[in-house]
Amino acid sequence: xxxxxxxxxxxxxxxxxxxxxxxxxxxxxxxxxxxxxxxxxxxxxxxxxxxxxxxxxxxxxxxxxxxxxxxxxxxxxxxxxxxxxxxxxxxxxxxxxxxxxxxxxxxxxxxxxxxxxxxxxxxxxxxxxxxxxxxxxxxxxxxxxxxxxxxxxxxxxxxxxxxxxxxxxxxxxxxxxxxxxxxxxxxxxxxxxxxxxxxxxxxxxxxxxxxxxxxxxxxxxxxxxxxxxxx
Length: 231
Fold this sequence. Notes:
This protein has 231 residues and is mainly alpha-helical. The protein has a domain at 107-186 and 221-229: Lysozyme (Orthogonal Bundle). The protein contains eleven helices and no strands. The chain has helices at residues 5-21, 36-53, 70-90, 100-103, 108-118, 122-133, 153-158, 167-184, 189-198, 200-206, 213-228. Residues 14-35, 54-71 and 92-104 have low confidence and may be disordered. This is Putative murein lytic transglycosylase YjbJ. InterPro entries: Lysozyme-like_dom_sf, Transglyc_AS, Transglycosylase_SLT_dom_1. Belongs to the transglycosylase Slt family. GO terms for molecular function: peptidoglycan lytic transglycosylase activity.
């Protein structure tokens, strides 16, 4: 029979997820009771594949039967395709955890390098990136903040950034700026993050985290991500 590699890969992923999720009683397997049709079709296809294996030679090549007509071969192929299509239609959408949220996929090397260079914890850098831009290097806010770490034009210029949408430049500048703020507030990450969001002037004016809902939520969100997601 003809194997659809895309659907098989999805099935293997679902099976893996199912095995992992079944270890927890409060999570539902991808092959739940509502996906009974998918389970049956998968079983049928596996049975057909196993039966086909008995009609192969030692070299793994199929030995066609002289009595098999071209019409029956076409019918078999069409049947295979129909089963694969039915199975694809019944498969639940994959919802495998996005590792980019934990590692900011593609930026780990830059983050680690800047973490070492500017003595800023890598988890904190990752959390700021995720909170600021969701990992989108092309992000631009309504206020003009740019790139992964949402640098304001004046901040980017002060830090010598020539292209704020370049991940390497953006992460280095953002980390350098964050390092300056952490040192300014004697290692108090809460005040450093508040200044990163609302500006040092606002922190100085209120003698701490400004009473702005956005800033208070920002500080809480970043630190929460550091503890729950990246550690």
